[in-house]
Write a structure and sequence with these properties.
Immunoglobulin-like, 2 domains, 12-stranded mixed sheet, 5-stranded antiparallel sheet, 30 strands
């Protein structure tokens, strides 16, 4: 019996020594490849920077002539992304995409039948009309007690050298109202139920112009969302939206929208009023002041009225009463999408747009007077001959130094416009690459 006890004791000692001396299997780096794809076919483009990241590191490698980037990584789960811009058929084009599910392992390195991880890039052709700025987060009240958010607005910009017809432009947002709220549109497989459908859900109402709207080259229109008045008269940190050239999402003729925040200055022409056909209950359009999924699209007023009143076109996923109804909005009509996450709820947030409309997000800290502003396409803007000597650099209007982001181009768009320059803004269909958080709403100057 004593012998058996000593034998067991020796086994335990040897096990302890083995553990201390490192007899366990070593973790070694593995060589992997990432292949660019577009429209489900390999994309052979050299020099495209592919970024791959885990929770603590980001690595960047340029593709070779076959469109492949090679990395040496420790086992783990990574996310890869890439963006590049070019000109095809005289049009500016961007390719953009991400793959958040790259699992590096010595057991199964690539998906079955593949010799590289796929990175599918969506082809994004430049649009004339883009969302230049969304100001929806509100600002501090006088004295810092509370916040004020009835001063929301959106700016639409003509990102080209030709006049744009915006008459059929519409404005909408997707449910849920906040990116961090429970999202009933995710199925059991954790994918959006409309991912492979021809529609996305639109919530509340869809706004459209009531008169002809033309936007000159490299120019913009401002659309007040709730109050088209001079808000600075009562809240110092707010903005002045009482301008005869501005437009207003009006409750005129929309009896349901009786909330007192709907107000317009007498200087706003009635021809500049927008209208809508509400399909949810409530006395106001409910635009999130922290994390909306906002989009613009092309749709005639008559078509807007039809789909907003056709119950056969409603989706009941968000609720089977007219509190949660959504309209099935055609994806093919969408021309611009902006995914905003609350800066304090990033980890709880989930995408609402499908990848062909938008990838990525921009973070917003609300109630501070910040806005979401589109980044400058540096290469395209500098290429315009008429901009020689007019571009202003050293942009310091972002919030990167506070709690947010900035324009990586370094060009101060508003100062350059004031100097007579023409700005071309970034279009990649990735809100995180196309937008940043601006310290001061551009209308505030």
């Amino acid at each position: 019996m004593m012998f058996m006890k000593r034998f067991v004791y020796l086994i335990l000692v040897f096990a302890a020594v083995a553990a201390v001396t490192g007899c366990e299997e070593k973790v070694v780096p593995l060589d992997i490849q990432i292949q660019l794809f577009s429209d489900n076919a390999p994309l052979a483009v050299a020099g495209v920077d592919v970024a791959i990241s885990d929770a603590s590191n980001v690595y960047t490698v340029a593709t070779d002539a076959a469109g492949r980037a090679r990395f040496t990584l420790l086992p783990g789960t990574y996310s890869a992304s890439a963006t590049f811009k070019t000109v095809e058929g005289g049009k500016r084009v961007a390719y953009n995409g991400s793959n958040p599910g790259i699992v590096v392992s010595n057991v199964m390195l690539y998906p079955s039948g593949e010799d590289a991880f796929r990175l599918e890039l969506q082809k994004v052709e430049s649009q004339q009309l883009v969302i230049k700025e969304l100001y929806n987060g509100g600002c501090p009240q006088n004295g810092g007690a509370g916040s004020f958010s009835n001063d929301a607005y959106v700016i639409v910009y003509n990102n080209s050298e030709f006049e744009a017809d915006a008459t059929d432009l519409v404005f909408a947002f997707m449910p849920p109202y906040n990116g961090h709220a429970a999202n009933k549109f995710y199925g059991a497989d954790n994918t959006l139920i409309y991912a492979d459908e021809s529609w996305i859900p639109a919530a509340g109402a869809i706004w459209s112009f009531t008169s002809s709207v033309k936007i000159p080259a490299y120019s913009q229109v401002v659309v007040a969302i709730f109050g088209a008045v001079d808000h600075t008269a009562t809240v110092d940190a707010s903005v002045n939206l009482a301008n005869a050239s501005y437009y207003w999402m009006s409750n005129s003729g929309v009896a349901q929208y009786s909330n007192k925040k709907y107000a317009a200055s007498d200087v706003i022409p009635t021809g500049n009023y927008l209208t809508c056909y509400p399909f949810n209950m409530g006395n106001a359009w409910t635009l999130s002041n922290s994390a909306p999924a906002f989009f613009i699209a092309n749709m005639s007023k008559s078509e807007n009225e039809r789909i907003s009143n056709d119950t056969a076109n409603f989706d009941l996923t968000n609720g089977n009463t007219n509190v949660g109804w959504s309209v099935k909005f055609p994806k093919s009509s969408v021309i611009g999408a902006l995914e905003v996450y609350s800066a304090s709820n990033i980890e709880k947030s989930m995408p609402r747009f499908t990848p062909e409309l938008n990838t990525g997000y921009v973070a917003l800290t609300n109630k501070m007077g910040y806005s979401i502003y589109r980044n400058v396409d540096k290469e395209a803007t500098e290429a315009l001959a008429e901009n020689t000597g007019k571009l202003v650099y050293g942009y310091a209007g972002g919030t990167e130094d506070v709690n947010g982001s900035t324009d990586p181009s370094g060009i101060d768009a508003e100062a350059s416009i004031a100097a007579g320059a023409h700005i071309i803004y970034s279009q990649t269909n990735d809100s995180g690459k196309d937008f940043h958080q601006r310290k001061t709403a551009s209308l505030k100057k």
